What we know:
The protein is mainly β and about 500 residues long.
Amino acid sequence: MHLTLGRDKFNTDINLLKYKVFEISLKIIMKKYILSIICLLILPLGVLAAESTVKPEETMTIRPSIRIYNPLTQQMEMEFFPFGLDSKALGLNLATLDLNNDNQTEIIVATGKNEKPMVKIFNSSGVLTSEFLAFAESYISGFKVIAADLYNDKNPEILVAQNEEGTSEIKVFSGQGKLLFKFFAFDEKLLGGASLAVGDVNKDGQMEIIAGAGYQMDPLIKIFDNYGNFLTSFQAYDKKFKGGINVTSADLYNDKQWEIIAAPAVNSAPDVRIFDNIGTLIKTFYAYNPGFGGGVNLDTADLDDDGNIEIITTPGFSGGSHIRFFDNSGNLKLTDFFGYDNFKGGLAVASGSFDIDNQTEIIIGTQTISSLNKYDNYKSLEVDLTKQHIYAYFKGELKKDFIISSGKAQFPTPIGRFKIQTKIPKTRMARFYGPDNPNNYDLPNVPNVMYFYRDYAIHGAYWHWKFGTRVSHGCVNLKLKDAAWAYTFADIGTPVYIYASKK
Length: 503
């Protein structure tokens, strides 16, 4: 009896020992397995974070939204999402006006990129009341919208114009969405879009339509009558400036003659200018730091009921959500504030009274949302030495990418953050390392040269066809047609980010 019990106990102990060994082994295996899984999950995020200045998850929470603020208290009174929380639209533009003479301000919203071009009209509570198609459904690059009573008949009109990827066609609709007429503000063959404003700039009692030149156009402001007939034009900025012009209009000096207020759309200091109807410069001031080149959006309103109209500014792409107010002399007025936390896609801006207190509020919206989480610069070039590719980004989206040839091991292309310093259409490149040295070269007429650091440049290469491999002496070589496109795309000061991604 005792022998049996002892043997059973012995067997039981052995089984327990085996179980413990198995349990410990399993825990070790599971720890290694879980650690491996965690590494696999974290590593790509780490690589992505290293190549992007914005956390990947932030884009997932950004949806086109509209906020209404009291400008005197800086308190947000309402927020709504005009396209819903599941929208894939990459931004919006907006306007305000009482469209149906019920003493209630409507909010008029233009869909942004990645959505068909709808004008959506909301009541002051953010409830959709009507909508209509502004352009062909195939156009999904976003557009601008304004509203005004063009004919002083208490039947306001809605005007639209395409963003920089579209033409300068302006369409005028009734408040119910019926197309009344359309015309091109600039050469119909040009892309670049246009900006819009309406005002009685020549003191004739009739509203004029004001158009600011689009991206890559000459810096002109054109004035048309309320049927789209051309009246006059003037140059608003230096002729070399091609970044586009944002415009608005208001009677800033209470003399019944509306002034034209202009600001760069991109690619220039935030230089706001006030003109009369023949282009005489009345006043100029910086809305933000002179080094900011992402553009300025504009609106006007008497926000503090003092009988004088304020100029409202918001930054364009890459500038944060800083809302500022200026008097008609360009002096800061009221208290500036930020409309969103950490959003840098630019703010659409308008104004109106949206509740029963008769206080004029400002209304802002997320103008441009980057699907790639790229908000630091409105335009940039990135060179991946591992993939032998160059990528061109505009307002947070990839415009083009090209295969390249970078520096070979003996003459590596520098890694780091640089800027385009000099652009030369064609130049001679030569280097002498010594008699009969195989590295010597003398290359005339190298096209589309953009120096970004010392004597390192991005340029076209006609002397080899080994793109995708490292064969240069440190420069970034492109095919001739690709170099021509990049040369047109980039400006002096455009950021150049060179890195080597992991394979």
